[in-house]
Amino acid sequence: MKIGFITDKIYPFYVGGYETRFWELSRRLARDNDVHVFTSCPKNYVIEGVHFHKIVPYVSYVDEFGYRLFLKDFFYMVLLHKKLLCKMDVIDCNTIPFFHLPFVKLLSKMNGELMVATVHEALFSGLSHYFGKYTEHKGVLTRAFFMSNFPFIFLKRVLKLPDKVVAVSRVTQDVLTNQFGFSNVTLSSNGVTLPKYPIPSMNERNNSLVYIGRLAPEKRVDDLISAMAVVIKDHPTTNCHIIGAGSDSKKLSRLVKANGLSNSVFLHGYVSESVKNEFLKSSRAFILPSEREGFSIAALEAMSYGLPVIAASPKHYEFSGVFEFLRPANNGFQYPVGDSTELASKISLLLSDINLQKQLSKNAVTTARKYSWDNIIVSYKKILG
Q1: Which domains does the chain have, with CATH numbers?
Q2: pLDDT tens-place string over residues 302-344
């Protein structure tokens, strides 16, 4: 079968949730299929049997405040048509940035291809983040356009174009089906690559916490730093390692210094896979303070290393994808999003009880094994037919 993936970003050129998903699926499918990825990368590549086609060079699709750059999204869509003239049997199209979906549908219909669209989170309540730069535009007409219901209506319309819609979490599937009336939504969860070697017990680990992800406003990493200022009063040997980069990097660095946490909180930027895995092996808990998550592969990966996850409970149901697999008091804890005091309380509770750590750790590993990419690919192949 000839399978095409259309996504603006993909690992190993970018890091993130959907970037990882498309890579893990494509490399497994390439073992017995002809797989092509149309994306942003420095040049054309063939990696592990996957053909990468350069649409645009490696670029950042967000501005310094973490908002999507509309013009770059549009530029990607315009250039996409040059590469999509070759016929596929199936096209799986990332719904981000979603402007290109009508064009992909037109081509797939002309070529007799099955069009699948993958939705990573039901962004309806988050469109202000996506278009935030334009809702504050000085031009009255521009501001009015992006603050109107048109982007919302457009998104609903284009999601009815694909032959099949894939949701990566039950939360997203539920929102699309029950709140917005889509009838063609199939669940295909995100997954995790399980560690190849035995993981250390809690008795062998450092007194460390870890966060892995982008440093952007909606990730609310500042809440974690504020919580650490409270935690170290009762647990002075605790360290927190923040892995990732983004628009909030400088702001968070200043916050660490302002709270006198330079010896307790460390911002490492992006690190290699092997270094990241070492942090996961040596830490006691993974912290996810984000206000919105379509799923969170990073949290699931942490569980595969035996880390309990302490996650923010978001205000909007559609952003609670992490609770697809996080069970409070079973493999982690939850706290109200933005409440750094309650986050500090949950961290202290966990650090104070080694037996609790061991039980949550055991349950976390059991949970992660259910989401192995090797299991996920089986159900995904059924969707493709």
Answers
A1: 2-188 (3.40.50.2000), 202-369 (3.40.50.2000)
A2: 999 999 999 999 887 667 889 999 999 999 999 999 999 999 9
Mean pLDDT of 109-138: 69
Helix axes 297-304, 17-29, angle to 10 degrees: 70
Determine contact, residues 290/258, Cβ cutoff 8 Å.
no
Cα distances from 25 to residues 79, 212, 246, 275, in angstroms, run: 24, 22, 26, 24
Taking the CB of residue 376, how many other CB atoms lie within 10 A of it?
21
140-168: b or e for each residue (b if 16 or more CB lie within 10 Å)?
eeeeeebbeeebeeebeebbebbebbbbb
State pLDDT tens for residues 235-260: 999 999 999 998 899 999 999 999 99
Instruction: Give the span between the Cα atoms of 269 and 200, in whole angstroms.
Output: 25
- How confident is the model at residue 110, as a pLDDT? 85
- 164-166-172-174 Cα dihedral, nearest 10 degrees: 50
Q: What is the pLDDT of residues 124-155, one digit of tens each?
A: 544 555 555 554 444 444 445 555 566 567 77
What residues does 56 pair with on adjacent strands?
40
Question: Tokens for 135?
Answer: 């809702």
SS3 sequence of 254-267: HHHHHCCCCCCEEE
Contact in structure between 114 and 385 (CB atoms under 8 Å)? yes
**For position 148, what pLDDT does the model report?**
54
pLDDT of residue 70: 65
Residue given tokens 């009762």 in the structure block: 234
- Nearest alpha-carbon partner for 362 in 334, 337, 327: 327
pTM: 0.86
Q: Name the helix (H) or strand (E) containing 52.
A: strand 50-56
Residue positions counted in the chain: 385
